[in-house]
Amino acid sequence: MTDKAPGRLLSLDVFRGMTIAGMILVNCPGNDNPYPVLAHAEWDGWTFADLIFPAFLVIMGFSLTLSMSRRLDKGDKPFDVLGQAFRRSTIIFLLGLIVSAVMIPTLGVFRIPGVLQRIAVCNFFCAFLYLRTKPRTQAFTALALIAVYSALMMMPGDLSPSGNLASQVDRYIFGDHIWAETHDPEGLLSTLPAIASSLLGVWAAGWVRAGVRPEKRNNELFLAGAALIALGLIASHWIPINKNLWSGSFTLFTGGVALCVLAFCRLVIDQLGFAAWSKPFEVFGRNALASYFLSELFYGVQEFIHLPGRDENIKEWITATIFGGLSEPNAALAYALCYLAFSLGVMSVLYRKKIFIKV
Question: Which residue has the higher pLDDT, 217 or 118?
Answer without folding.
Answer: 118
